[in-house]
Amino acid sequence: MLGIHKIWRSYTLLEKRNIAFYIGGIMCYKFGIEFFNGSIIALAADRFGAAHAYTKLGAATGLNQAAQCVGAILIAPLIKSWPTRTVLAFGIFTFALMTTLLLVVDAGTGGHFKDPISKDPQYGSWPVDLIFLFWTLSGICYGMVELIRRVIPADIVGGKVHKLRPMDATVHIFYEIAGMSGAFASSSAIDRFGSNYSFFLTPVFFTLAGVIWLFVSTLSFRQDSIIDGELDQNGLAKVGPKGRTSAGYVAQVGRGISSFGESVWVGGKLIFLNRRFIWLLPSYAVALYLHRFLENILATTFANLVLVNPAWSQIIVGGSNFGELLGALAVLLLSNLVTTPLPWLRFDALALNLVWLLPFFSTIATPGDITWAVKAAACVLPISMGWAAGDVSLAAYIQSALTESNFSHPRVSALGAVMAFLYATYIIMNATLGSALGKVIDNEFNRTKSPYTAYLTVGGAQFSVACVVILLSTFVPVGACAFNPKVIGIVDISTEEPIRPTGNRLHLPQRNDDLSDDESVGVGGIKLEDRLRTQTTHSH
Fold it and tell me: Fewer CB in 10 Å around end: N or C, the chain?
């Protein structure tokens, strides 16, 4: 408690005020996004034709993820030219407008709240494939807000590491608390109002978040180096302020697209041509894909096809969010004992096998019994806990392994290149496998009227294969054979050419004797609070 009190006293009165407003806004934002995500997934699963519901659902979620990249590219030039809080508020107001658009279209074509007596949804007559358009537009706005909110913490405290660490850790905890609460609340809203109107609170919370963020001061700590670093980490190194005219903005967006494409290309070569780097592909991209597939597809199908109540998918997602919170806290509390990502990744891989419970549950669960949704949430909780702990730790390892190397490229950063490639890989997997495996669920359910067989393949078999692949990948780094290695090898790219095979020298990080015990490091010199900061940088 004395340490927390000391940290709190280190902030100025203005910084405390700005942190309070920022946390208030971020909680409203997360609460609103959980309402929208739960509702749009339930609406899509319900309105898409029964024969192709989950094929289209998988394609729509993949398209939404791709649109987030577009949103980041579109908003990047603005944060170089305008106050961050203003751009952040603009982004969330635009997001509120996009979510309102769907409500207006449904109401204008005859839609109503769920009938209180029959409990039947009252959808409008709009073409159901418009969901692809609405979800894509919302994904663009989502990408805008997610990029901006990574920059503003450094604005608030001026990039001072000893202040950023506890601030980001605190924001992360409140963010997950709001996410868990929003998921559970949206389940009740879907059940009561219907999936076409259950997110009517989303524009309200988004608008409230934007208003709260406008109370953040026009910050004097705004530094181009901080913003440049955040853009580099997203593969947008070329974006720069070339003027505020329309033509200038279009040119900057074009440079952003070019920069992201080049980052993906360079990142792919960095990963595939460095033998000790390739293990990041299954440990990061595959694990992220499985996490999203679990929440978006498996949770939705279990609630719809087994429990016959789409609202209860959010109970399962709420359990997942609670698991993520526990994972982040576990990394925080055990940072001195678990200093590398490998133990967390191995726990994550083993926890994936809990998905085998879903086909078993599908044969014995009683439709309409909410206790089975709670049991499914309890199974998902350790999976998400392992994923979150591994993601927090692994993101820090990627950052430390690359930012401390001698890599040099005239246009892109090593960290931005690798993260862009890993995220692009995740998007491709999510779009292709999500749609293909959704089709498997559709075909099996249409044939047998039960998702049991589909769960055996797209659930148990897929996740067990991934378990083996991720486990094997954790033994690739130097020093990884130990159960809980203290350090693992870092790639030292010591040549100007990033892809030259002769630059694959490996070394173990050395302890800096100048560091005090309080500053002892974990993976590659990155402390836990930095891992939490990196997690908020690359999270959903």
Answer: N
- Is the CB of residue 173 less than 8 Å from the CB of residue 28? no
Q: Where are the chain's structural domains? A: 13-538
**b/e burial code for range 498-520 (CB count within 10 A of at least 16 → b):** beeeebbeeeebeeeeeeeeeee
Q: Which residues pair with 321 in a beta bridge?
A: none
Q: Which residues, given as ranges, of the chain have pLDDT below 70?
A: 1-7, 50, 76, 79-80, 150-151, 154, 158-162, 164-165, 169, 218-247, 249, 275-276, 395-396, 399-416, 487-540
- What's the pTM value of the predicted model, to 2 decimals? 0.78
Strand partners, 506: 491
Question: Which residues partner with 202 through β-bridges?
Answer: none
| Residue that the structure tokens 């085998």 belong to | 356
How far is it, in rounded angstroms, from Cα 201 to Cα 35?
7
What are the φ/ψ torsions at residue 492 (nearest 5 degrees)?
-105, 100
Query: For the structural domain made of 13-538, what CATH number should be given?
Result: 1.20.1250.20
* Eight-class DSSP state of 242: -
Identify the three-state secondary structure at position 78.
helix
Beta strands in 251-314 (DSSP E): none
Name which of 275, 289, 233, 279 is nearest 425 in CA terms: 289
User: For residue 507, what is the enclosing H or E element?
Assistant: strand 505-507
> What residues contact 420, with CB distance under 8 A and at least 6 apart?
234, 235, 260, 263, 264, 267
* H or E element that contains 506: strand 505-507
DSSP string, 27-48: HHHHHHHHHHHHHHHHHHHHHS
Distances (CA, A) of 142 to 83, 113, 206, 411: 19, 26, 11, 27
